[in-house]
Amino acid sequence: MPKLSAILTLSSSLILGIGGVWIAYNVDMLPVSASMNAPVYDELYRVLFIIGCILFIGMTALVIYSLIQFRRRPGETGDGIDLEGNISLEIFWTAVPAIVVLFVGLYSYDIYDRMGGMQPLMHDHNGQMGNQTERVWGGIGSGPIETTYSNNSSPLAIELTAMQFAFIFHYPKGDIISGELHVPLGKEVSLKMESKDVIHAFWVPQFRLKQDVIPGQPTILNFTPTKAGNFPIVCAELCGPYHGGMRSNVIVDEQEDFDNWLRENSKETI
Amino acid sequence: MTISLKPSNTPPEKLQPTGWLRYLSFSLDHKVIGLQYLVCGFLFYLIGGSLAGAIRIELISPLSDFMPREVYNQVLTLHGTIMIFLWIVPVVNGAFGNYLIPFYVGARDMAFPRLNAVAFWLIPPSGLMLITSYFINGAAQSGWTAYPPLSITTPAAGQIIWILSVLLLGGSSIFGGINFIATILKLRRPGLKLMQLPMYCWAMLGTSILVVLSTPVLAGTLILLSFDIVAHTGFFNPSLGGNVIVYQHLFWFYSHPAVYIMVLPAFGLVSEILPIHSRKPLFGYTTMVFSIMGIVVLGLVVWAHHMFTSGTPPWMRLFFTIATAFIAVPTGIKFFNWVATLWGGKISLNSAMLFSCGFIINFVLGGITGVALAQVPFDVHVHDTYFVVAHFHYIVYGGSVFVIFSSIYHWFPKFTGKMLNENLGRFHFIITFIGFNLCFAPQHWLGLNGMPRRVAEYDPQFQLINQISSLGALLMALSTLPFLWNVVRSILYGDNAGDNPWNALTPEWLTSSPPPVENWVGEAPLVLEPYGYGRRDSNESQEQKK
Q1: Structural domain for B124, as ranges
Q2: Which residue of B has its CA nearest to A63?
Q3: How far apart are CA A122 and CA A189, in angstroms?
Q4: Pair type for strands A189-195 and A156-163
Q5: Do A170 and A97 share a domain, yes or no?
Q6: What is the ipTM of this complex?
Q7: Which residue range(s) make up the domain with A176?
Q8: Do B344 and A70 touch (CB under 8 A)?
Q9: Which residues of chain B neighbour A232 with C-beta distances below 8 Å?
Q10: How many domains does chain B have?
Q11: CB–CB of A224/A209 below 8 Å?
Q12: Do A85 and B287 touch (CB under 8 A)?
């Protein structure tokens, strides 16, 4: 009998594990990934989803099984078994979540590092790095991702000013002011952001990046687009009545198209 | 086993009204105050729920077409504030705490009965003040978080009334916390040790420590914010050199523990309900106590996980990620222990049990998304989106509110001496459970795919999922009807419950239902094993005591 229950437990945990992995790989709940940051994010998401599915389905199954198996049958009286605790079992279910949490924490640290979260701030405006005395806070991705090291050119610097209820982009190179963000494909962009009035947030779901835009405190966000197209920029911090309407677009073009856009607009505005 | 205790010498207060009028009076009876909290909280729940309904109606279509945008922001601010400060916190702490704690420690009342009554009577006026601010000059519209500079630049009247009302409610909460700590530590019946108390006492002790340590910080922060608004000081106003991030740190230093102020008492209540209806001792009492205290300690050092996109430095992000994720360990222990409490029991699947088990399932999902949100890289994408909305509703509705309903089904016979109708109760559970999951589960997808929270208008691609969510909200609203009918009908024509319908061993059941003014005629029983189910000798000794 104990053998049978051991086999049952083992096989049901096996089914649960495989089921969790299967669900996580077959249920896709994320939008397209369009930045160098996004595949790294999706990897973390997948791992969290697998662990989450296993835990949730396992706990739900245990509760439902207990409710059915140990239900009071009609006419039954009396109490359940006198079981006040089991030290080894309790140590087991303290240790397992602790290990899982530790693993998740270390893994997400690794992801964070790969996204550039631990890099020193690399915002370089007009080559003045070093003698920049202004205090700047960086969002995740404000340091470069490994692969961009090979790319020797410095990031494209763009300034973002947020106000109720619009994002205004300023390109120091060419002195262009635009309501939409135009960026070249495959090149690192460094956004320096500051708000004129209340706190806003710059979010591009397809880039998996978000950073608050704060009045009185510049923040920066770096990213490298990897997919050409048109993606929404969403304000994600309650900023007033028209918060829901505070949206813009990021247009990721091939380098050539972007250069054309830059040239055409520079002429008009300078 | 029984130690005799002298009956209280204080004569019952002659001036107190009797009958239903005492529920409208400045009563000093902890049982009356408990029910005052419960009914008052439920009325505010209906108001907060109507506001949620208005939000879900607005979100049926992608355009802002149901109400003006300013009103939408007022509605979401009031919804959050009412549900947190006027419904869940007062009910899981004030209502059940006041009713049950004196029974559990073997006392005739709380340590400070007058302070207790003051704590309750602060709630209705501040709640009414908050709601009437809508009719005066528009309520606050900067969300329940009231982040400056938005809260400084929106119309001042509503924001100031909001601050005053939250300050009063915070005061009420602190009074309650002090009272619970004093009662649990100092009014225990002689012979009753701390480690023999029912688990809810431990939950309330932990919660009250959090209340007393963190609520004053919120009060101080809101006073500074009100200076910024009325006296044009510059604490949080960047145009006067203030720092908006400091506000967020101070605010979340209270408001993250506030989550535990809402769920720890719920954990305690579930720990009382599960053993009684599965006729088994609570599994792992000692680990449960330590995990409550672990949650209290960790709960105080995780606040900055609400600020991962605010430009916090990397070391801070890492520290708060690890600390937050580790809360899953003591919380996990509690959940495994509850399942182990069910295991091998003789479970009566009644409404109280259904809501408690619904709570376990919902809260596990909320806890899993919580661990995910603690990871900085994950949070950076979904912070301030509908994913977060789904997560915390799984915690506070799927968690705390399910437990409140479970507790009402469980203790209603004690409150009134009448049974609630079980069929209506099960029906109530089924619609609530389906409606709740239909409403909030799809919101995870909305958040991951790009819908921010607190918006009146959204990308049309999200319309279908929002409509499904609104349908779930409609079911949740309808589920209140069988519950209300059940309560009214049971008070009028319900079956008599007898003193101890669940055949329970905890001390509140060892007296008449409803209990006399001083809780017991004669001495208080000494219950050393509140969870001694399945032990013949223990049952017999309890019988003898009666």
Answers
A1: 26-545
A2: B339
A3: 11
A4: parallel
A5: no
A6: 0.91
A7: 137-269
A8: yes
A9: 450, 459
A10: 1
A11: no
A12: yes
